[in-house]
Structure formats: structure tokens, C-alpha cells
Specification:
By secondary structure, this protein is mainly beta. It has four helices and 22 strands.
Amino acid sequence: MKKILSTLMLAIITTLVIAQEEKPFKVEIHGFVGVNAFLDTRQSATARNGNIYLFPKPASLDAEGNDLNDKAYSDIDAAFSRFNVGVSGPEIFGAKSFAFIEGDFLGDKNTSHQDVGFRLRHAFIRLNWEKTSLLVGQYWHPLFITENYANTVNLSCGTPYNPLNRQPMVRLGYQLSDKIEAIGFMMKQNDFLDKGMHEASEYSMIPETALQLKYKSEGFFAALTGGYKVLKPSLYDPNIYNDGNGAKVATDETAKGGYFTASVKKDFGPLTFKTSALFTAGMTNIVVLGGFAEKDNDTAEREYTALRNFAYWADFESNAEKVKPGVLFGYSQNMGAFDKAKPLAGYTIGGDIASMYSIIPRVRFMATPKIWFGVEWMYVVAAYGDSYDEYAKPIDTTNYKNNRLTASMRYTF
């Protein structure tokens, strides 16, 4: 499969380069080569070959009481290097047309059993009229705001405080004024899935929907985003099937999630300040803490209730040309389920974490605007619950800490 994908991508690039000579197509190839070296002082939950850091793991004791997770870990990786092809084409229905495709090598090694695997990041077609824009294909989730995210040396851009997700979508934007844009989204899932519900978006006939307002002026940006989704976790009831009688019982049970965020960026001249506050319910597909619990009821059938989570981050970065220090602060709080519930293993990210915070100072050394070397220290503390309250919120907590040291080099072309 990977050979087929690689051959197909090569054929597409070759065709596009040839097409560049035939007006009205204009083809541009860009990307970067990146290398990260990192060291963790404690075993940690990560994604994408260790490049996306989540949180330190709690104690795992052996027969003699030794904590197996109190061990260091290090790696050097270049699989996040990527390339993309952008094509500016002829007018379609009076709109300027543009197509884009991008890939990297951070496919899921848990299924491929190797460190690298080609994957699709973006693939979309965009039409731009004077005030209206239409995008169809795979692109950033509305909660990952391209104008305002943490510019960390590590690849995670503030995850799990800042969402990280790309989804297939229909995205319609309208310019209300020269400073305000309204954008509507209808989405399904692909590479980023809800924990424990790998086909829940496909089983559901209701797409995830979102509405976003963006305000842009010189030196200032703000955005408000809200969304809602309805998932169908399974075609049969897992509780009844797992009772041991061997018979599957059909179910129409759904799991509902949603979110709201406010995002602000301000350029103060010497430095830029960025911040975002996010409330989510049942949104593990955007790689934030939370997920779903099982609602307490009087029957054997499973009902789902979303776990609520609050996340906040603030980032300061120098606007200097050669040496660019910066620091990111992040905080996340588990607010428990909407209803009385019990934990549901496999349906959460950090479902046993009551709260966590990070302090992440960094510095970049810019050889050119597109070639840099950076170092970063990430200090993370996660408070794990030893038990849960009646709303599946972790209580009686113990703190676990990790220090991640990262050195990175990036060559953008």
C-alpha cells in the first residue's frame, strides 16, 4: 500500500510539473526537512512517533515496588519532514481556483510496526470569489486556527492545550467586511478519530458542524468558534454483547460532543502575545484531554455522556530577526461528565488526569528566515486521580512530572 501511495504521489508531482508549462496552471512545490532530538526524564504518552507530546505516565509498579515509568527515554527523528504541491488554476464559475496536497511520514507506527509511514495531511480544492470562499477536502479543523497557535520548537504547537486535527470537510467563508469573516463547516473524520469510536463518524448520519468568526486588523487577531457533533459509537450494544451470551443486540445509542473557544493574538512590536481558552466535551479527536464516560442508568444498555474539559494557553515570542526566545504556558482541567457516570476505559485521552500544566521556554537561532536551529525545555506536571467522583472526575490526586529537552533543526524550501 505504501509503495502504491508513494508511486501515486510521484506521478501526481510529475504530471503537475509538466502541466506548469501549460497555462493557466501554476505549480509550486514546497515543504521542509526537519530533525528533532529529544530526551524525556519520565515515560510519557505521546503520538506521531513521539513528536506530539501529551503527558507523563503515572506509576506502574513491578513486583518489588519499583516504578517502571520512572525511566528516561530519548530519540532522534526526521519523519515529520513534509512536502506539498500547490496548484493555481483557471477561473471556475467566476472564482479563482487552487488545489493543494501535502504529506509527511508520521503514519501510525502502531499499525505499521515501524517508525515511519507515509500519510496524507492536507488535500483540498479551494474556490475564491470576491467575498466568498469554498473549500472542499481535508484541511485544518476549525479549532486549529492557523493565524494563532503556539510556535513551539517541538512539533505539537501546544497540544494537548491547543487542538490538533485535520478532517475532511466542506468549508464556506464569507467576508462580512474588510476585517470580519464568517465561516461555516461540515465535517467527517479520517486520520484523527475519537477514542474507542473508530467508525462512529461514518455510522452517524449527522456531520460535525461548526461556526467561526474571525476579526483581523493590523497587529491584532481574534476568533470565536463553536461546534457540535453526534457520533454513533457502535451498531450493537457493547455491554450486552460483552455479558457473555454471545448475541449482539442492535443499538441506536449516540454520543454527543461540542466545543467553544476564544482566540486572541496581539503584536506589540518587540514581541507577539497569543492566547486561547477552550471548553470541550467529548473531543478526543482534536487531541485534547477528555472523551466519554458511561452514564449511570437503570438498564444494562450503555449510554454515553461527554467528559467536559477546560484548556488555556498563553504564548510570548520575540519578533527579533536572529535570536527569537519565547515561552508557552498551558493548563488543562477535567470538569467531569455532564451526568452521573462511571469511567469508560479506552474512550478517553487522559481520563484519569484531574489537571495538568506545562511551562515551555524556547529559543530559535535564525540562520535565514527559513532555516533555523532551536532548543526547548518542556516542564509538565499531571495530577492523576486514585479514584473518581460520581461524575467520573478523578479525585485523590498524585502529581507526576516530566522534563523534555528538545533540539531541532528546520530547513524550509
